[in-house]
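[Automated response] Your request has been received and processed.

Submitted sequence:
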Amino acid sequence: MRNARLRAICFDMDGTLFNSFSVSYDAIREGFEAFWREIGENGPVPQWSSVRRLIGLPSHEFYPAVLPDSHHSHWKRLHRLVGSAERRRLGAGRGRTFDGVHDTLGELKERGYTLGCLSNASKRYFDAVLDSCDLRKYFSLFRHIGEDPTATKSQVLREWSDEFGGKEGIIYVGDRGGDVEAAREAGVRVVAVTWGYGSPEELARADAVINRMADLIGIVESMDRAV
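Generated structure:
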């Protein structure tokens, strides 16, 4: 008989575990300035308010979206420049996780749950965040899909649920409406966090919403009992 016990807790990265504002705000400004210099134009640098609403999209969607329509085809150049600026800041120790992230991940791992990290980030950014913020040690599952236009979070969550005894075997934790919808499409339960980039309207369809990372422990206990 299939064991329906909750076995894996999987997390989005930016806005959930990692406070990307700590490096991305300055990196995007620097990357745009370098981009316009490289192509010999005097173009705009977007306001953070415009960028913020797009955070969470895969790289191949995010970078065209922040560029003027006439420059969409140059998104890989901008990606390279912003990515380089982000990694320099991460390497200098400027990256920050949200309060309670390390303690909560450590507690969940100690309790025997398998932990996964599933992000729309590119590989180099994903690896740089995990390593610079000392997050890699908590996770057994990793997937970054920002550079693969054929991959989706819902697809990965379905694959992972198959590994852990079915849809009751995992939950996904994220901060955007896209995270909630991906989990819904995969048929797995989802916990939304309020400290990231999502609005209350985006998170309304989550199975639970938390205001502190430490609150996840109680939610996991409840969901584990429920199955």
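Summary generated for your ticket: The mean pLDDT is 94. The beta strands are 8-11, 18-19, 96-97, 114-119, 141-144, 170-174, 189-193, 208-210.
If you did not submit this request, please reply to this message.
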